[in-house]
Write a structure and sequence with these properties.
Length: 202
């Protein structure tokens, strides 16, 4: 297979993984009974899941044309955008039902997907904060990678658990495939980088 064909196939798969869940969710009949704010909050959550897939692809040099420093730089911007989508997701849900959001944040909600969502949210915030503190605090690279990797794993697994347990506007098959791709891509980068081994050496 030629490099150009391979690159085209990779981008086609990634584009399908991104567009299909959003397009199918937009056609959900459940949207007819939802407030605009609730709908916006839901799609912010879907966008966050898409960004979680892109993050390991960028760090793992898996996207043709976005490898090396380009991928690292975009990884930082996508991370910032991910934090914003999480904030929009939670803020929209807060506007529609503050008591439910409080229960989720305090891990008092009876629904299992809520706990996974709270874990994912705090992990995303912590990973972003840890990344922002790397240079100002002059953190040791190996130890920084170990903590960042742990937080990222919590964020990805929490997001996948949250999304898969919700029976909402996302179409089940496309949602499952998107979550699976995010988990596989993250695992691939974590194993390749072996942050834990480097931390022991340091």
């Amino acid at each position: 297979m030629s490099p150009r064909l391979r690159a085209g196939l990779i981008w086609a798969v990634v584009a399908l993984a991104i567009v299909a869940p959003l397009a199918l969710a937009a056609q959900s009949p459940l949207l007819a009974w939802r407030d605009p704010v609730y709908i916006a909050a839901g799609f912010a959550g879907i966008a966050g899941l898409v960004l979680i897939l892109l993050q390991p692809l960028l760090m793992g040099d898996a996207l043709p044309g976005l490898t090396g420093w380009r991928g690292r730089r975009l990884h930082r911007w996508v991370g910032t955008l991910l934090v914003l989508t999480v904030i929009l997701h939670v803020a929209g849900l807060w506007l529609t039902s503050p008591p439910d959001v409080i229960d989720v944040l305090l891990f008092r909600s009876p629904t299992p997907f809520s706990a996974w969502g709270a874990i994912a949210m705090w992990a995303v915030f912590a990973a972003a904060l840890w990344a922002a503190l790397r240079r100002p605090m002059r953190l040791a690279p190996r130890r920084w990678r170990l903590v960042h990797t742990g937080l990222v794993l919590a964020a990805v697994c929490g997001t996948a658990g949250h999304a898969l347990l919700i029976e909402g506007t996302m179409e089940p098959l496309s949602k499952t495939l998107l979550c699976a791709l995010a988990l596989i891509a993250t695992a691939r980068v974590v194993i390749a980088r072996r942050a834990w081994a480097r931390a022991r050496q340091g």
